[in-house]
Amino acid sequence: MRTAVTGSLPFFQRMETARCWHAWLTAGFGKLVCARNGFKCVRICLVVSRRKNGLYFELGLAQPVRWRRWSRGVFGLAARLDKPVFLNIGAVWSRWCSEMDSKVFTAGQLAGLLNENFVCVRVDRDEEPNVDRVFQSAVGGGYPVNCVLTPDGRVVVAANFLPLQGSAGEAGLMGLVARVAELWRSDRQSLLKSARSLDHPSLSPQPLRLSPSLVDECVVRLLMDYDWELGGVGVGLQRRFPQPTVNRLLLSYASRSGDTLGVQASSITLRKMYYGGIMDQVGGGFHRNADAEWLVPSFEKLLVDNAEAALDYANQYAATRDEEFLDALNLTLSFMLSDLGVEGGFAVSLASDGEREGEYYTWTPAEVDEALGSVLGGVGRRLFGVHPIAVSADPYSPSRETTRGVVAGRIVLRRMFDILDLASTLGVSSHQAWKTLQDIRLKMKAYRDAKRRKPRRDETPYTYPNMLAVESMLVGYAVTGFSRSEWLTKALVVLDRLTPRVTRRLDGGREGLAEDYGASLNALLTAYEVTGNLRLLELASSVAGRLKSFMVADGFRDELRGTPTLSKLDSPNESPNSICLRGVLRLCAILDDARWLEAVGGLLPNLMGGLSRYKEVFVAGLYSNLDRFMNGAVHFVVVDAGDGRADMLHRAGLMAYHPFKVVERVALEVLGEHPNPAVRGLPRSGQSRAYVRRGWRSSFAESTDRPEGVLKHLETMLHESYNYS
């Protein structure tokens, strides 16, 4: 780690002296340019070259608060010093975390109060998600998380954002910590009486008797709570998050049962997101959440959210062949490549910072006209709802004043009409309308990038989100018929950094968490399905072998050592246990691994036990895995005889939708080397042929040499009943 300065400022060895937390961009050897103030910055700037504790933690070291990293030792220190612990959990991409960093934790008086009376601990939620999950329950979700803890880890006080000073009934951090410090000295028992332990969902109350009807009941409850007007599960919500595991479960249920309600629900949600302000209508990609109408977002963009959204749209496109879902998929993956792509991987987030909220993403009518010119300006304004400020976006009530979609005096873009309406407006064909839409997007993005400072980017190479991004790139490449080779190329470059020992970051370091292993396993298996490279399958088997050491009686614990937490709730990203189960079940389907299948059958009743106390939206990922386990996989193997026919068969198998299928392409000359005896025993004929089976450890009963035969077999097996026994 090194520090560097601008102008004639002195050089400091210790990072604690750094004061410029908001920028770090190197320009030439030994110099640093402040992205906000350039070389005019009068504060010391910081270059972080290897951030072992996470960027959010490291930026905190520039503050006067004496932060310590999370460890068991801090609670022992607190006990020896007879002080409570002040815990701050946050992320560099969160606007409210940045607000506290710039306006609260920089205050010298507050720092003195904290340093004298507390052991202060700061956690980067991207570095330590297992710690974050434990304390999220204390505040009910959101960032930052601020807690006062006893030396034995019980929570005394918990809150999200707090200003420095309170006002009008609103608590301020200064007054809060002063009061806690006073009570700790003078009336400690009153504090300890209110202290509570956090019950993390790890041990199940009792095993659950597994049945296919459990999945059906979960889906029924989800549909009963579905908002058919605005999309998403939950009526009357103030904020909406994408629900990737819910969408997948509903689509899977609809495909198996033939009940179209599931696919209708998932389609409504994904279309509302696609048309709403939660999607960057110019540059692609999704913001983390939005208001009840999917219109005004929180402006941060996370790699994990976009990877999961891409998987959602890929599945929905494969099932429906709807062009709008394909467009959303293309926009999302292209954004991930262009805006988050770094050498050997992906950046994990774009922050929501800026002088004004959302200034990089929002527009005025004059800016749209300047970006598009006189011809397209009017079309662009109507298309994206860029109305004169305080005048209605509703074209039928143009005089009604409104602030809908306006943030800090600027307008959030959203799609106002579909491609057929655009074609009608322009008097052109649908094909030409798509081209015009793309032209408008490109011109507005070029204008935005030239005129505005881009959001801050965290390039810490965390393995878990990078592997989700790899999986989404490969699935997108597959369902679009191998049309975007750049997606495949990027995915394989990132995968090349993996070893059997998965680390928290792609560039090495400490042992990975369960989510790192699970995401890596899924990425490797998807790459094997797409490429047929047996080395990838061998590496996936090795990763799964190490993942097995995370397994306990009721699931996969978050880490091998440390706090024995076990995360089973989607939040809203897929839970670590769901990710791990999804990968293990896929591997079982390919290898017929009886030991793994028996292990999963043993832990699922315990893992699923007690889920009834949670809303279905938080456990949809686990119910999807129960559905896979109970119904079994469709295993599709193309034996490639080198006659060119295998290309069509392989592509057809990958492009077709099925809620749980695995696809292999095995060259005839290496068929005898396959680790699965059932695959090794397939006929060695003189032409390429596809073989299909259904269920765990079953025989290959069907075969075809035509792509349309592949689709027919998958459709037939989709509706056949199969129960695990």
TrEMBL record:
Domain Spermatogenesis-associated protein 20-like TRX: 55-198
GO biological process terms, semicolon-separated: carbohydrate metabolic process
Transmembrane residue ranges: none
Cited InterPro entries: 6-hairpin_glycosidase_sf (IPR008928), Ssp411 (IPR024705), Ssp411-like_TRX (IPR004879), Thioredoxin-like_sf (IPR036249)
Pfam families, sorted: Thioredox_DsbH
Protein name, per record: Spermatogenesis-associated protein 20-like TRX domain-containing protein
Organism encoding this protein: Candidatus Marsarchaeota G2 archaeon ECH_B_SAG-C16
